Amino acid sequence: MKLRVLNHIPVHIEEDHNEVLKHIYKNIGAKYLPLENNTLVHFDSHPDLLIPKDLKPDECYDKYLLFDKISIENWILPGVFAGLFSTIIWVCPPWSNQIKPGVYNFTIGCDKKNGSLGVSCLESYYISEGLYKPQTKLDREREIRLIVLRLDENIQHLDLKDCIQNVKDQIDEVEHFILDIDLDFYSTLNPFVDLYKDANLYAQLKELYTYQPIPEHLEFGEKIRLGEEYGEARQTMLQSLESIFTFLSQNESLDRYEGPGEEYLPKVSRIVESVGKHYPRADIDWIQVHNAGSTFDDSELPHHISSKQEMMALLSSTEKLLDYLAKSPTVITVARSSQDDYCPPFQVEEIQSSVLSLLQMKYPNVKIHFNYQEDEE
To answer: Which parts of 280-347 fold into alpha helices (H)?
Structure first.
């Protein structure tokens, strides 16, 4: 397919990150981007590389169904399965540790047993979500190359050189790439940290939900076996806790609870007691409590409110990395992530202004679309 040439670089700004996918589709449809195997350079405090639980594989090929199913944490991999992306470069800030820096080659495909989507990556990020499947158990596979680069203010640091070179080599191989920036890359909140703070809820949830990862020293075959085993055990635990907290949301206490996960009742009862001491029952959302707990695996959601100096240092590192890539993106997408509190609402305008200034300086032919303002009207 012969691509058309844009005389400018569109910058699409949305509030929720999953909303940017429609702009990527539009530019593919308009033949400004390749139909498949695109490279996405993704600046974010979060990977956004999960898969919607209720997404059927064939729905990845119907953009309208897909747009209804995706959310902020899972909008990228369905595009990989549909063939839009083949390489994801996750550039994360120093405080993000959901996936270790490095290069990961794996596949996404359909579980031969139940038809659901899964991945063959043995990182805890996937095992803890029940998404890991050995490659031999996947069908209709698509290959993924994931490069994780943890960027800090010292871009010349020795530990970064190899990974930055991997990014540079990838960009050199392609004619087009998509630059995607979540403003929470520069400063981020974990919205659950202060949930029922007076009851010290966050620490109690961390103790209850934290997942023990597969030991690093094991041989690959043993990791594959444990990957499935740990993933199934984790999903059983989460389903049990969901059952308990759903019961709590409908009943005064756990006294009459009969169901899965009774071994967790002592710890959950202590949470109920401590939260109840500080907050009226009518003000307690137990489903939200479970959702907060589910964000723990062997790491937790990043939480780092940056100082002005830290933000400027990361902006400088962003500029240096883009300079080093020495190629302009075809399309730029930006997510504000302020209404869900992942980017601090009191900093988002300053960060957005700084990022746009950087983009305008770096790429004078950008054309900025404030799409989120159109959605508000």
So the answer is: 286-293, 308-325
Coil/strand/helix, residue 152: coil
Closest CA to 44 of 161, 162, 187: 187
168-192 core/surface letters (b: 16 or more CB in 10 A; e: else): eebbeeeebbbbbbbbbbbbbbbeb
Give the helix, strand, coil percentages of the chain, each rounded to 5: 45, 15, 40
Give pLDDT, residue 195: 96
For residue 369, the cross-strand partners are 12
Decide if 110 contacts 137 (C-beta within 8 A): no
Q: Rounded to an integer, what distance in angstroms lies between the CA atom of residue 122 and that of residue 269? A: 34
Is the model's pTM score more than 0.90?
Answer: yes
User: What does the pLDDT look like over 60-101, one tens digit per residue?
Assistant: 999 999 999 999 999 999 999 999 999 999 999 999 999 999
- Alpha carbons 237 and 260: distance in angstroms, whole number: 9
pLDDT in tens, 259-276: 999 999 999 999 999 999
Give exposure, 282-313, as e/b (b: 16+ Cβ within 10 Å): eebebeebbebbbbbbbbbbbbbebeeebbeb
Is residue 17 within 8 Å of residue 72, measured between CB atoms?
yes
What is residue 333's three-state secondary structure? strand
User: What would the DSSP string read from start to end of 38-72?
Assistant: EEEEEE-SS------TT--GGGGG-HHHHHHH--T
pLDDT at 56: 96
31-44 average pLDDT score: 97
pLDDT at residue 131 greater than cutoff 90: yes
Half-sphere exposure of 103 (CA within 13 A, CB side): 13
The answer to whether 348 and 342 have CB atoms below 8 angstroms apart is no
- Contact predicate 271/203, CB 8 Å: no
Distance (Å, whole) CA 132 – CA 113: 13
* pLDDT tens profile 170-223: 999 999 999 999 999 999 999 999 999 999 999 999 999 998 899 989 999 999
Predicted confidence at residue 159, as pLDDT, reads 58
Residue whose token pair is 């006294």: 255
Evaluate whether 360 touches 1 at the Cβ level (below 8 Å).
Answer: no
